[in-house]
């Protein structure tokens, strides 16, 4: 087992008080956290978001992507429902890491799209591995989820892991002039289910 549960604490936020559960990934040397609210072990599907770390969007208010807005909207929806889970996975830059994302952004500043930039750097368009979710879901006693996402790969990954997704809830927010091309590439090249223009 590469994922080990470490400990749990309270995390008060503007949206409400979450429980924050820490998990160590010894193989990849990563530290993941999962936020839960309410009893997530009962049978009704748990409102869930699988969120990949985006330092620039989540913490530095970047408008290049939609990550920060999606994280906040997810926390808000969970708090409104009083029950839910956010898997905050340390897969910065779709798994290429922060400094490679800086390089990818530099290439995008020169006109490449997000997929072309990754490929020019020798990476796949999306290098994320979702198998780390399984031990976390099992540890937390979650039986099934209704997933807030526009990314079909996340749903496919959950199914491959044998984790039950009962519903996909659209999670489109944070569109702005700076991320319009990024969102168009997500829709056109990565298959994201995005409607808005
Ligand atoms: N390589 C690369 N990664 C990016 C870029 N923009 C954002 N990211 C990363 O993309 C990831 C976005 O992950 P999520 O918030 O889980 O969203 P998603 O996979 O697009 O799917 P949704 O659930 O629909 O939001 C984060 O790890 C960001 O750091 C980019 O231009 N290049
Ligand atoms: Zn982002």
From TrEMBL:
Residue positions annotated to bind GTP are 49-53, 70, 92-94, 114, 149, 154
**BP term (GO), one:** riboflavin biosynthetic process
Q: Which GO terms describe its molecular function?
A: GTP binding; GTP cyclohydrolase II activity; zinc ion binding
Q: What are the positions of the active site?
A: 126, 128
- Give the co-factor note: Binds 1 zinc ion per subunit.
GO CC term, one of those recorded? cytosol
Give me the residues that bind Zn(2+), please.
Answer: 54, 65, 67
Q: Which Pfam families match?
A: GTP_cyclohydro2
Keywords from the named record = GTP-binding, Hydrolase, Metal-binding, Nucleotide-binding, Riboflavin biosynthesis, Zinc
Q: Give the protein's function.
A: Catalyzes the conversion of GTP to 2,5-diamino-6-ribosylamino-4(3H)-pyrimidinone 5'-phosphate (DARP), formate and pyrophosphate.
What family does this chain come from, according to its entry?
Answer: Belongs to the GTP cyclohydrolase II family.
The family database entries (PANTHER family) matched by this protein are listed as: 3,4-DIHYDROXY-2-BUTANONE 4-PHOSPHATE SYNTHASE, GTP CYCLOHYDROLASE II-RELATED
- What's the name of the protein? GTP cyclohydrolase-2
Q: Which organism is it from?
A: Marinagarivorans cellulosilyticus
